[in-house]
Amino acid sequence: MEADDFLNGQVILVDKPLHWSSFQAVNKLKYLLKRKYNLPKKFKIGHAGTLDPLASGLLVICTGKFTKQITEIQAQAKEYTGTFYIGATTPSYDLETEIDAHFDIDHIGEQTIEEARLQFLGEIDQIPPVFSAIKKDGKRLYEHARAGETVEIASRKTTIYEFEITRIALPEVDFRVVCSKGTYIRSLAFDFGKTLQSGAHLSALRRTKIGNYRVENASTILDFEAKWKALDA
Q1: pTM for the predicted model, two decimal places
Q2: Residue 174 annotated among the catalytic residues of the structure
Q3: Burial per residue of 46-69, b for 16 or more beta-carbon CB atoms within 10 angstroms, e otherwise
C-alpha cells in the first residue's frame, strides 16, 4: 500500500489486547502509519466502537475518507464472548473494581441458568454501569463514581439478538452474545446475576464481530509493527 491508500480511506481490523484502551490502540497505529508512510500531521483516523481496557478483540479502525463510515459501522450488531462470575458483584460490574458483595449460588443449576438466559432475549431495558463514559450533568459517569457521588441513571432500550451459554463451571458461566449498539455486557452480567437471585460480574470479555467484520481477520498492533519493520529491512 501507498500513503494515498490510507489518505483516501482504509478499514483496518485490529485485535486489541487486554489492558490497552481503544484510544491507545488508535494512537499507536496512527504513529506507525505516519512513520511508515510519511503521512501528514492531520491525517484522519478513528475507531468504530470503544472497547474497555479489560476487554480484548475486534476494533474497527477507519482512515482518511472512510472515517465518514464510522457511525454506520458503529450501528451494526456486535458479537461478544466472555465469562460471568456468579456469586459476587463489583461496583463497576467487572474486574476494574474490587468485589463488594458475595451471594449464595447453591440454588443455581443448568435449568436455573437456562431460565435466566431466556429472559434476556429480544428487546430489554438496561441501566448502563455507573463506571461508564456516558455524560451526566456535564461529567462522565465514572467521574461521578470515583468522586463517591450518587447519580440517577436512566434505563435504555437495547436488543439481545442471540444469547448462548457455552460453558457452565460454577462460579463461572461462559457465554456468546449478539446484541445491538449501546448494549453493555457488564450490565448484562449484573442483571443476569440478579435474575438468578444471586449476584454476578463480568470477568472476561472479547469482541468477535461487528457486522460482517470478524476478529479472525484482524491483526494485533504488534503484528503491524513487525510487518512494517520487515518491509523496511
Answers
A1: 0.91
A2: no
A3: ebbbebbbbbbbbbbbbbbebbee
